Structure formats: C-alpha cells, structure tokens
Write a sequence for this structure.
DNA sequence: AGAACGTTTCGGTGAAAACCGAAATATCGG
DNA sequence: CCGATATTTCGGTTTTCACCGAAACGTTCT
C-alpha cells in the first residue's frame, strides 16, 4: 500500500475506531463495528470497504452476517508500533491516558500484551521455558514441563509456517513480550483453562482466581498490578461503548 | 500525537512529498518544499504549519528564509519503518518500484542507509570495528584504527546524550545498519573526505572514485551494486522534480 | 412464499479542507 | 527609506468525503 493511502485510512476517527475494535483479533459483524464507531450501518459499510481494499482488514461471510477482521498479525503490530512511536507534541496536549484495564492486560491481535503479557514472557524466561534472543524468543529444544502441564503441543506449532515466537514490543509498556504462533497458542490455553477471560467490550483481559493461582505459583509472577484498578466484579456487555483510545 | 491526527497529516500527497523531501535530514526553505510538492507557496505554508503543530517538523528561521526540517531522527525512523511495514494490497497494484539510486545509497535522516549503508555496517563488523548486539551495535572500547584514520573522535561521541550506535532496519533492504550519533558522524566524515556526495535533488548519495577505493580497500566492500544503475556522470540540479516515492 | 433481518448500493447534503490570488509581514540590499 | 524577495495571512472557490435516508440485495425463519 501507499503511504498516503494508509494515512488517509487511519486519518479518520470512525475508521480508526473500527480498526481499534478489531485489534483484539476477534472478527466482528459489520453492524457491531458501525455501533462501536458511532455511525450508521451504511457509513460503516463504506469504511469497511475502503479498509478492505487497502488490505488492512478482510471479510468472512457467514450467512447473512459479514464478519470483518484484521488482515493479519502484521497489521496489528503495524498499528501498535505506530501508536507506540508517535512523537509527543511538544507544547500541545499530551497523549491521552491509557485505559487502566487495557494497560494491565489485553489481547494484541491473538497473543497477550500489556503488563500481563510482559510479565508472562518474563516469567517464562525466568523459569527457563523461554529464551530471549536477538530478534525473537526461542523455545527450549526439549520443550518444558510448564507446557506439558497446560497441554500445549509445541511440536505442532513448530510445523506451522508462521513465526514461532517473535518478540513484540508493547505499545503501552514498551517492553518485549512473546507473540507468534506460540504466543497465540499460549493465550488460547490460558482462555481454555479459565485463567483469563476476554472482555466482551474491548480487547482487555481479566485474570480469574484460578489464573491468579496459576500465574503466581507456576510462573512466580507478581500480580500486584492487577489490583491497582478498582475491581469490577461482573463485567456486563455495555450498551453504550465509549470511544476507544488505543 | 493522536493516531488519527498523524494519519490525517500523512494522508495527503502534498504533505507526504514535503516529509519525504525532508527525510534526507537537510533543512529546506519553504519555497523549495512548495516546489517539490508541486503546490503554491501559500498552500505549502499551511501544510508546513500543520506538520509543525503535529510535531513532525520544526522551523529554523534564518533571515528572511524559513528552513524546515524533520523534528528529529525519531520522526525519520517512524516514517521509514512505517513505509517498510505497510501491507501489500492483495489483488491491487503492487508497491511502486523503488528508485534505483535511493535503493543503492541514500541518507536516512543523518546516517547512511540503502545497500551502501548496510554494506558499510557489515564491513565494519567484519573488520572488528563494530559489534552487532541485541538492540544496537557496540563500538570497541579502545576504538579502532579505521576511525583514527578518517579522523573520527569516538570519545566525543560517547559524551553526547544521543544514542551512540543503535540499529536501524532499512526500509528498502530490511537489513540492519548503524544509526545514531556514530552513524551520523561516520556519514559526515565520508562527505568530508569526498568519498560520497549528496544529490541536490533528493536524499540519494553517489560514491566517488575516492570513495570506491576507500570502501573496497579499507572495508573490503563489494560495490557491484553501484554499477547496476546507468552512471550519471554529472548530476545537475533538475528544474523539474518528479514526485518522490519513498 | 412472505416477513424479518443484516448488509450493501445509490443519491444527495453538508462540512472539511486543499488550493490559489491578493494582500500583509518581515528581511535584505542598496 | 525604497524596492526586491521570502513567507505568511486572509478570502473565496472547488474538491473531497463523511454521513445518512431510501432502496436493493441476500439470507434466515416461519
């Protein structure tokens, strides 16, 4: 894509809202995206069309529903990296505050990011279950007890053509955490075991009681950052969604 | 800055032309930028205003001339990285061809990039005058004969607060080369010694005969990539500047 | 088949903004 | 001080495009 073309696409609030809504990696139907962007369905439809033509998102039809999703992990990291590296305007107003629940734990496309994502990667490294290398992480050749215990099949992951465990430098934390097929599979396992739960509203993630035990006992993580925010006991699907800040 | 705001700024051909014209790191007067963008001075002036307010460029007044330049190396790498990572539109037209003279050797803000930049960094590493590390390069503690011979003062560079020799992953080559205060000082020395010459039209760089000797004899570089393009014996300031592709 | 629903296409409106001519401002060189 | 040059500000025109109402299209449900 052209630089100008890309700029035009992300130079408009509604389209950015759509992209940010998709940053969690889940596909969403057109009307939901229209709702989150705060525009009529027709308007969103044309935006979705442009984003698709630009190669940033793609469409999966499912009956009468049209699900849209990011065109790939590269697009997600492109946007995250961009948001991370934008210069602070000198005299002007500073960057808007990051939502606390996004800062502490969120999905970055298909793997975990935020303080939790960084902490997990650190914990795995500390346990010798992951090695920090120059461009990416590396998994131990013989696997690791931790992965067996949660039922991950590393051999299957190695066969995929996708990068196994590249480093992703966090937008909010500016620290590396593990991405790629391993990062995605690990996050998936965390969901399966009920250690984390996705928010229905955005890409933030809540750590369950079982998750707290797992992370603190198996990975020795310090989860104090989770207590900073006032705990919301039961998160309901909100009818009004405030505009997403990345 | 805001994601949307940034997108709006680079979502317009004239403003992108201005930014690309400044990517070489040299400050240019307003009228020159208007000329390169192909718009009237008044139009360029308003664009320059917006880019300045967005923190992407800054102004240095010099008498009746107003010189504009990129706000810093971070902005340059932001744009280079962005251009590098943009997705290819699937069915659509592919990315425009890179100009050969930009591909082979160019300035990236204040250091050398392109095939020449990558080759130099490689050559320095091969000579033991530079070490490739995780996030950045490293210089030998005792300096190196090469730097003495070209008159570089490494001690002075170490005192600057700017990063000494970070890695910059090339937009066209997708390979690391050396940036930072060292990268800038090295490029400056190459200019001083007449090993390279800047194009007056864009940020491309020509290697002189003396430069060829230096690079091939001192750094053992294979400079065959310089012969791919039809040599332009004397590059004149062109009156008509074709639109810059990044 | 017909109603209901999600989505897209079409057409028109209104607002934003890219652009330039003219005039204002600032500096330089006599 | 005056004319020349570089740049910006102001005003007005034109283009672009975000937006939504209405209608068309496709799928599901009954």
């Amino acid at each position: 894509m052209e630089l100008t073309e890309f700029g035009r696409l992300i130079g408009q609030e509604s389209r950015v809202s759509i992209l940010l809504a998709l940053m969690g990696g889940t596909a969403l139907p057109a009307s939901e995206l229209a709702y989150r962007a705060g525009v009529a369905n027709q308007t969103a439809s044309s935006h979705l069309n442009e984003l698709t033509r630009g190669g940033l998102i793609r469409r999966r039809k499912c009956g009468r529903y049209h699900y849209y999703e990011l065109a790939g992990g590269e697009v997600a990291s492109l946007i995250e990296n961009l948001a991370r590296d934008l210069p602070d305007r000198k005299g002007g107003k500073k960057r808007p505050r990051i939502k606390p629940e996004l800062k502490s734990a969120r999905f970055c496309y298909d793997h975990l990011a935020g303080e939790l994502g960084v902490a997990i990667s650190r914990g795995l490294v500390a346990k010798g279950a992951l090695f920090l290398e120059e461009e990416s992480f590396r998994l131990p050749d013989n696997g690791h007890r931790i992965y067996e215990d949660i039922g991950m099949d590393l051999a299957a992951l190695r066969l995929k053509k996708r990068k196994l465990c590249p480093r992703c430098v966090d937008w909010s934390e500016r620290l590396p955490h593990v991405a790629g097929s391993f990062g995605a599979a690990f996050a998936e396992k965390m969901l399966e075991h009920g250690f984390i739960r996705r928010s229905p509203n955005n890409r933030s993630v809540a750590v369950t009681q079982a998750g707290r035990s797992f992370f603190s006992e198996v990975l020795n993580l310090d989860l104090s950052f989770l207590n900073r925010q006032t705990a919301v006991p039961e998160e309901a699907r909100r009818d009004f969604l405030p505009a997403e800040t990345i």
Remarks:
- The mean pLDDT of chain A is 90.
- The longest helix of chain A spans residues 41-53.
- The interface with chain B takes residues 1-13, 16, 53-56, 71-72, 74-75, 77-79, 81-83, 85-90, 92, 95-96, 133-134, 246 of chain A (CB under 8 Å).
